[in-house]
């Protein structure tokens, strides 16, 4: 990790791969920086920048003590500081909560473009009944953080059900270390449940919004809503790709991203 400090004295840490235009890769909820491992080789012409997200970092880090209503602001300030710490106008590429952060950061940060894969935004009708944060918090308070993380996986990563969750977890590279992130994910989910998508997002930067037909329907719906709220946006949906699209189909998604950036 390369530690550095921005002009407003926010400390940032990141790994950089390559010397091209900085491509800031912002991971989602339960994914550590290793999430971008399959993606980085597809962007050899860029300088991939993988930061330590505040409150997450590696799965062995302790969660940050931050209230839910401060989480998004904290993340946005961090991304802005990161953008200031690298040379040139960066490209922001975010997945899930990282995609929401990228879009919000771009409202007041000089960036070349934004790539947002299924931003963590809830449709109004879905948000009214959203209770994942409460259910996870109850399990954490009862001393069951593993069960709390399982509820997140079932609702966000496998909304259509999974035959053998324990077997799937046994193959998941970050399990069970990321159980330590349960409290931070609770705060993040509360932040998502509180977020209201405006009719218009004040982002002048060209933005590519991506989604996959294999992910949760509510995130596909939200991705389209985010696209509609952006003044300069293109929307692309990948058939059969899940919410983990960037890591699941890196070559397919990278080709679409590269075509967008070259236009």
TrEMBL record:
UniProt keyword terms in alphabetical order: Hydrolase
Name recorded for this polypeptide: Hydrolase
Any Pfam family hit: Abhydrolase_6
Domain of life, source organism: Archaea
Residue span(s) of domain AB hydrolase-1: 23-255
Source organism per UniProt: Haloarcula hispanica N601
Record field: transmembrane: none
GO MF, one example: hydrolase activity
UniProt-listed InterPro entries: AB_hydrolase_1 (IPR000073), AB_hydrolase_fold (IPR029058), AB_hydrolase_sf (IPR050266)
